[in-house]
Amino acid sequence: MTHRDVTVEEAVAGLEGFERDLSALTLERVCAGGFAEVTDTVERVTGRPARTLRSFLCDSGPALRRGGRRG
């Protein structure tokens, strides 16, 4: 997998109507940092503090590589 930055217009190319509008609005908010606020929601819902994606992948990596099979 390779990461490549694309513009919002490139990302929504091929979409039409409501799907295009909603996707563009969401991507614009992401790019502007609109979803970057850290809250206590995860801890309130799960009873455990949130963790980073890196931490999750380190802990779950072996199971994910096996396609979700445990054991």
* Count of beta strands: 0
Shape: extended
Helix and strand succession?
HHHH
Poorly predicted runs of 5 or more residues? none
Provide the structure class.
Answer: mainly alpha
Strand content: under 5%
Average predicted local confidence, pLDDT: 89
Q: Helical element count? A: 4
Radius of gyration, CA atoms, in whole angstroms: 17 Å
Distance between the termini: 27 Å
Largest sheet: none
Helix content: 40-55%
Please describe what this structure looks like.
With 71 residues, this protein is mainly α. 54% of the residues lie in helices and 0% in strands. It is built from 4 helices and no strands. The chain starts with 7 loop residues before the first helix and ends in a 6-residue tail after the last helix.
Question: What features would you highlight for this structure?
Answer:
71 residues; mainly alpha; 4 helices
Summarize the helices and strands and which ones pair or pack.
Layout (H helix, E strand, L loop, with lengths): L7 H4 L5 H15 L9 H6 L6 H13 L6
Describe this structure in a few short sentences.
This protein is mainly alpha-helical. The protein has helices at 8-11, 17-31, 41-46, 53-65.
